[in-house]
Amino acid sequence: MLALEVKNLSLKLGHRRLVTGLNWQVRQGEFWCVLGRNGAGKSTLLHALSGLQSIDDGSVWMMGRSVKDLTLPELAKLRGLMPQQSIDRFSATVGDTVAIARAPWRLGSAWRDDDDRSYVTAALQRVGMLERIDDDVMQLSGGERQRVAFAAMLVQNPALMLLDEPSSHQDIAQQLVMMRLMQELAVDHAVIASCHDINLAARFASHVLLLGEGFHYAGSTQEMLNPEVLSRVYGCEFDTTAMSIVAV
């Protein structure tokens, strides 16, 4: 099923053109990693896909409908965005913070304490944060808060999941947990995550979108992560035969 279609998309940030003429399709069952140098436009692209940032040219379609024609409640059911960093302005428990993500599915209907609680506890269990359910989110570390945001994405349960560097604040073990979880989610969803770790993308993602300066490459992970393409995107040489230490 085609979850996302991008047609001739162009994005600018100030006077810088980040993306030009992007035509891209993402299907349910695919896990895409968006790679590129710092400032290449990875975060900007995810915000534009979510409908939270305007685009300069082109169009974005979800489940066969233009994002421009979707109401906010419809959009909230179709896509979710996990930002790089969550900023909390007031105290709230971890459980209540995650439960808010059920709102798109409760508009115009009563909240069901047992049902909604089960969604929250299951999500927190998957990200290893269930024991912190009654703790204040303002007392969490950056990595823990990021995992709570991931749990909120699970509770929202959109068809298209957009995650901005979801493993950036995690230790090695938790990076593997997050990447495996996204791989599992891609069975029933379309998953797009920006990432800086090429090795993690190579290990877990099914597809890769590489953003360069004024150009891009998109395709299967095996096709895209080769020395020639990577060297052009990152501006340095790559040796794919070199041995490396890999956590398992």
Detailed description of the structure:
This protein has a domain of 159 residues: Rossmann fold (3-Layer(aba) Sandwich). The protein has 248 residues and is an alpha/beta fold. The mean pLDDT is 91. It is 34% helix and 25% strand. The longest helix is centred in the middle third of the chain and has 15 residues. A six-stranded mixed β-sheet has the order 6-7-8-3-9-10, sandwiched between helices. The protein has a four-stranded antiparallel β-sheet with strand order 2-1-4-5, covered by helices on one side. α4 packs across α5.
Offer a concise description of the structure.
By secondary structure, the protein is of the alpha/beta class. It has helices at residues 42-50, 72-78, 94-99, 113-126, 142-156, 172-185, 198-204, 221-224, 227-234, and strands at residues 2-13, 16-27, 31-36, 57-62, 65-66, 79-82, 160-164, 190-194, 207-211, 216-220. The chain has 9 helices and 10 strands.
